[in-house]
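Incident log, structure service

09:12 report received: a user says their structure output differs between two submissions of the same chain.
09:20 pulled the input from the user's history:
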Amino acid sequence: MRILVVGAGAVGGYFGGRLAAAGRDVTFLVRAQRAEELKRTGLVIRSPRGDLTLRDVKTIQASDTAEPFDLIVLSCKAYSLDDAVKAFAPFVGPSTAILPLLNGMAHIDALKEKFDASQVLGGQCVIAATLNREREIVHLNDLHSITFGELAGGSSDRSRAIDEALQGAGFDVAASESILQQMWAKWVFLATLAASTCLFRASVGDILAAPDGRRVIEGFLSECRAVSAHNGYPMGEDFVARVSGTLFAEGSPMTASMLRDVENRSRIEADHILGDLIRRGGVEQHNDAQLSLLRLAYNHLKAYEARQAREA
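09:34 re-ran on a clean worker, output below:
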């Protein structure tokens, strides 16, 4: 199976690098500067699960020509999706499968509009990784997994073939027969975490130390669950019990990656993670004097974006 990984940053570089090291036929779609970096120093991963330096990395650029790939793995930020689609579109053929690892759901709609809907898979990943100053991929904890599946549910020859190609590459892989339910579950959790930690500009532990901190996190979780249920993906008490150990852990230093982006004065995915959740409905409408918690957090982040644009 010929695999194209779009980008060689923290997420795409990690999973693509592991796949390439395991002998899979992997090519990275990168810009000229990143291609030169990889040629000069190789693809370097620093990880508790084992370091890796991969030489002679196969790369391609958007202006190049190549036969269509069997699988395209997409792991860009939501605000870079349009540019990413333009870059990899020439490498999509009639039988190409597109596996996005973005959070939320708006990217699924966008990909289905651009390509044949049957070519788009559902997917998600769990990993904490970043690029350091040397442009090495630094894996920050033990978690590294990909879950994927057919958007229509169930299994297929295609999903089984992809599962076989991804297995045994040094990270966890699961083929799901209900990937949309799992994607919504992750979205609800991440939106709750992002809204809470960004609004307070604090970790989970610090929020819980505030007089009404727990109530606010509970409010966010309730609103996010309401949206999910409104769209046909209810999150029951088993889900609440599962995420509560993280969202209500006393003294926890956990923050959302979106807060780290805010603190670094970087671009954020406010529209994709919170704005689109609000747009999909399910939260009781409030008058202007009684904004829902989700709308309050979203407006907080949009004000941040406005300031960033003004100061750019």
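09:41 both user submissions now match this output. Likely a transient worker issue. Closing.
09:42 reviewer note: The radius of gyration is 20 Å. DSSP finds twelve helices and ten strands in the chain.
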